[in-house]
Amino acid sequence: MLDPYGPAARAVAWTWWAMFGFSAVVLVGVVALWLIGMRRPPAAVPEEKVARYNRRWIVWGGIVLPCVSIVLLLSFGIPQGKRMLPLPVEGVQPLKVEVIGHQWWWEVRYPESGVVTANQMNLPAGRPLDIHVSSADVIHSFWIPRLGGKIDMIPGRTNVIRLEADRLATHRGQCSEFCGMQHTHMILYSEVQTAEDFATWLKARQQWQAPAPQPEARSLFERECAACHQVSGLESPLGGITDETLLIGPDLGDVGSRSHLGAGVLKNEPGAIRRWLSEHQTLKPENRMPPLDHLRDTELDVLADWLETLTP
């Protein structure tokens, strides 16, 4: 949060430093008065003066000081918060990205280009982003600390936050609203690219033709996976899911090229998909993917070998 990579994140960081500085001044002042009060020798004070002093402390310390503090902080914080509102930008068209929270993974859509992925975002540097967030089940919260503030993802409601990245890097996002047992294992990786690289990535995803599975892999996928997953980029769809809004599990069209599996649980190295298929309930207990213990090792190998080829 204190290492910002964009204007919205810098606004959050400066707000934090302002609040920290102000609270430090208040703390030093209170401690100083406390030490003076402890070290000052006792003196006889008339009853009427005690009452007057008490009233002064109540008025100035209990009413005036908090009110002035709140006004100062709001006058500084409100303009900074406006940087994250989806306000019109002259001469620039913000990129719309839809992010849907699930227990416990992220569905990411680029509606203007029809691209769908999961647990990762590719973002162009130097262009405002309007992130439209919602939830498919319980309340989640979208937060990429180095890019800006967080915003709640509420079932049946769409909230929008304006972010922008001005440096190339890969950032870790995190669900920041407790949403169940695997809340901490709900990670979103965001790669900031140059505008040219982002356009190339988007075009490649739009034109991607996934390799058709062999008959055995197709049969296994349709029987075991297609009730919850789809594979974008296939000329002939698998199973019955054709509407993205019906997804229960992530779209697997680019699963072979993702940096991690299970929303950050397992690094996507050679053999990782095969391990996820057989150990996902151990790696991420209570996730909604049922165990595949009834499948033979050779069947899991066939399924994993095909999924590893999905690398647009």
From TrEMBL:
Cytochrome c domain span: 212-311
Pfam families from the UniProt entry: COX2, Cytochrom_C
Recorded topology in the membrane: Multi-pass membrane protein
Principal subcellular localization: membrane
GO MF terms, alphabetically ordered: copper ion binding; cytochrome-c oxidase activity; heme binding; oxidoreductase activity
Domain Cytochrome oxidase subunit II copper A binding: 92-204
Catalytic activity line of the entry: 4 Fe(II)-[cytochrome c] + O2 + 8 H(+)(in) = 4 Fe(III)-[cytochrome c] + 2 H2O + 4 H(+)(out)
The keyword Iron is assigned to this record: yes
Transmembrane stretches, start-end: 14-36, 57-78
GO cellular component assignments: membrane
UniProt keyword list: Copper, Electron transport, Heme, Iron, Membrane, Metal-binding, Oxidoreductase, Respiratory chain, Transmembrane, Transmembrane helix, Transport
Compartment(s): Membrane
PANTHER family, per the entry: CYTOCHROME C OXIDASE SUBUNIT 2, CYTOCHROME C OXIDASE, SUBUNIT II
Record-given protein name: Cytochrome aa3 subunit 2
Gene: ctaC
